[in-house]
Hints:
The protein is mostly helical. The chain has helices at 2-16, 20-52, 62-72.
Amino acid sequence: xxxxxxxxxxxxxxxxxxxxxxxxxxxxxxxxxxxxxxxxxxxxxxxxxxxxxxxxxxxxxxxxxxxxxxxxxxxxxxxxxx
Length: 82
C-alpha cells in the first residue's frame, strides 16, 4: 500500500510538469482504458454467471446423457464368492 502511494506520487509529479493539453490527453486515455476494462469485466461476469446455473449448451436429450454416463462407468472390483 505504501509503495502504491509512492508510485502514484511520482506519477503525479511527472504529470504536473506536462502542458495542459497533454494532461487532458492522459485523462482521455485513462478514461477509455477504464471503460474498456469495465465492459470486459461485465462480459466476463456474464460468461461466468451462465456457467453457474449448470446450463448445458447441447442438443442431446437427458436420456442420451444418462446412457453416456452409464456406459463410461468402469468397475474393476471383483467380488469373491463366499
